Amino acid sequence: MRNKLLLFAILLLAGQAVQGQKNKPIDAKATRQTKNLYRNLLKLSDKHTLFGHQHATEYGHGWSGDKNRSDVKSVTGSHPAVVGVDLSGFSGRPPEAIKRAKDNLRQNVIDTYNRGGVTTVAWHFSNPVSGGGFYWKDSVSLPAVKYIIPGGEAHAQYKEILRGIGEWAHSIRGKDGKLVPLIFRPYHEFDGGWFWWGKPHTSADEFKSLWRFTVTYLRDSLQVHNFIYAFSPDNRFNSEEEFLERYPGDEWVDMVGMDNYADYGRDRYDIETGARKLKIVSDYALKAGKLAAFTETGLESIPDTTWWTNTLLKAMQSHKMRLAYVLVWRNDTRSSTHYYAPYPGHSSVPNFIKFYQDPYTLFENDLKRIYRRKILGIF
To answer: In this protein, which residues make up the domain named GH26 (predicted)?
Structure first.
């Protein structure tokens, strides 16, 4: 009987330990602001979803580099709550170009933090062992993952690239002197074949090894404690098992997400399927004690003038889900067709204003002290 009680106590403590790791960053040494952002995103996602736009404040439709400008702000009066940026300029370029990219991005991230907004960081990582850039190009690209993971011949080179990211992460401080928290989303859309880290070019074990080493080296070796780590495949899954095929484990991920353009008008209008896949993501996050997000979507040129409420909002509200944010892709500076958020005069502006005004969506002006322990004015 005593042995049974002892076993029960051990199992109970083990269960409590696992439960204690839920709904908090995987980095036990995460900065206070990072922990608060995580906690507040989790709370907000019960009733709201933050709206995000990639490269929103760096450039837009017909402009670039204007201070405190975004196409979303020009339409609504508020910047997006989440601004997407990219580390694409941090490697594969001459040193002076890399320094310039880091300086420019540092200021952008700091400005967003000082305004009270949130930054999510993608990484279109130029192939470190061959040509081809971040895309996979037949006869040019090499399957770099096996070269850069521990034991690979380019592992030291990868560590050097990560050291550059770590140094930059340590250098981004707001006007309050605090390190700026970032949602770091590397190796996205890994279930497709268009990137060199994609499914056809690396095994599941190799991908998991890459993810785990990246987190370990940044967090534990380089002491980067202002990252929230986001895992986001494309939409090529129809079950939780398929979604988790290359998942490195709960101890290595803070946020689970999905990129999905195909079901939202690019290839077809299938709100039911798109919403079902989002629910798989949200349900897993709820079960595992993680954040969830709709990490990329959009309809290029937005030809459907009611897309914002009749497609995007409808999908996100069709089931009970907890989604921290939804992000649409960028507005190109020069292209007359490559844009995903409205600009002044666009035909979808009236519907976007309805989307903006819906209580479910939050923009930057709606956020109050998201980096503090308690948020004001929303609950």
So the answer is: 32-365
| Residue 21 maps to a domain | no
Contact status, residue 72 vs residue 80, Cβ threshold 8 Å: yes
Rounded Cα distance between 103 and 97, Å, is 10
Cα separation, 258 vs 48, in Å, equals 18
Range of the domain at 204: 33-366
| 194 marked as part of a ligand binding site | yes
What local confidence, expressed as pLDDT, does residue 319 receive? 95
Structural domains counted in the chain: 1
CATH of the domain at 318: 3.20.20.80
Residue 179 bridge partners (DSSP) = 173
124 is in an annotated binding site: yes
Q: What are the residue numbers of the active site?
A: 189, 296
pLDDT at 7: 44
pTM exceeds 0.85, yes or no: yes
Task: Give residue 203's region: left, alpha or beta (phi > 0; psi -120 to 50).
Answer: beta
Is 325 assigned a ligand-binding role in the annotation? no
Give the pLDDT score at 377: 55
Element (H, E) at 50: strand 49-54
User: What does pLDDT average to in each consecutive run of 10 residues of the chain (379 residues)?
Assistant: 47 44 94 98 98 98 97 98 98 96 98 98 98 97 98 98 98 98 98 98 98 98 98 98 98 98 97 98 98 98 98 97 98 98 98 98 97 72
Q: Is residue 90 part of a domain?
A: yes
Rounded Cα distance between 191 and 200, Å, is 8
Partner residues linked to 257 by β-bridges: 293
